[in-house]
Write a structure and sequence with these properties.
With 240 residues, this protein is α/β, with parallel strands linked by helices. 38% of the residues lie in helices and 26% in strands. The chain contains 10 helices and 10 strands. Bound molecules: adenosine-5'-triphosphate (ATP). Adenosine-5'-triphosphate (ATP) binds next to strand 2 and helix 1.
Length: 240
């Protein structure tokens, strides 16, 4: 059996009376691409925010490679190896592409900053854009820059929140190839609405619904699961 790198047990978070995440047990296997899917409002973003430490749980436990990280703030979890790619707003638009990635690399204490930036930009094919002001990049390139910033953190677990949203078809293909190139060295957990991407890329899928795990399995198992079809795959949202 594959080693579990990140695990959640009984994870819960409520907003007022709304149980956004309601007692989730979850295990991320080292080296896999794992997709987190579910209808709008199912709790996906809340769940990965709990994993990354952006928000604190009401109950439950999170372990990284067996070590309890539940009480650690987000920046210390990043140091331990959990990187949650920021939404695009976290890019500094007036800084160059190079400087944006350098800030991420610096936060990890990279000794050879230029080298670390070069490697991260190389992974996403953006070395040629290092000098460009980040705010002037195309949307697709801004998403890739975000990914390069995540990679500069040298994560064990990279959490991506809707990484293909707003990308053109060709850019989605490139993104898929890139994610494949990251594993098994890095483990990838991604929230993704594009079912084609999910079915093509993910080794395993977890389906959330109303804050609970509805199903877990391989793409073929998830596709064949009647509860999933009823809750999610049959909706217009999934066909988008
Ligand atoms: N800060 C907050 N305050 C109050 N309610 C919140 C907050 N964040 C999320 N919620 C609610 O918690 C539930 C889960 O939201 P969450 O964003 O985690 O779902 P999601 O599966 O990521 O949805 P989507 O696919 O639309 O992004 C929703 O009903 C949402 O309205």
């Amino acid at each position: 059996m594959a080693a579990v790198i990140l695990q959640a047990k009984g994870l819960a978070k409520a907003y007022g009376g709304l149980k956004a995440v309601d007692g989730v047990d979850f295990a991320l296997n080292a080296g896999e691409i794992h997709a987190l899917i579910g209808p709008n409002g199912a709790g996906k973003t809340t769940f990965v925010s709990l994993l990354s430490g952006r928000i604190a749980p009401d109950a439950g436990q999170i372990t990284l490679a067996g070590q309890d990280v539940t009480a650690l703030p987000a920046h210390l979890r990043v140091r331990k190896g959990i990187a949650y790619t920021f939404q695009i707003t976290s890019i500094y638009p007036r800084l160059s592409v190079f400087d944006n990635v350098a800030l991420a690399a610096q936060s990890q204490g990279a000794r050879d900053l230029a080298g670390a930036v070069g490697v991260a930009l190389g992974r996403v094919g953006m070395q040629g854009l290092a000098g460009q002001e980040a705010g002037t990049l195309s949307y697709g390139h801004q998403r890739l820059l975000e990914l390069a910033m995540g990679l500069a953190l040298k994560p064990k677990v990279l959490i991506l929140d809707e990484p293909t949203q707003g990308l053109a078809a060709g850019e989605i293909d490139d993104f898929g190839a890139l994610v494949r190139s990251l594993v098994p060295h890095t483990t990838v957990l991604m929230i993704e609405h594009n079912m084609e991407v999910v079915m093509d890329l993910a080794h395993r899928i977890t389906v959330l619904n109303f804050g609970r795990v509805l199903a877990q399995g391989t793409p073929a198992e998830i596709r064949a699961n009647p509860a999933v079809q009823a809750a999610y795959l049959g909706t217009d949202d999934a066909a988008a």
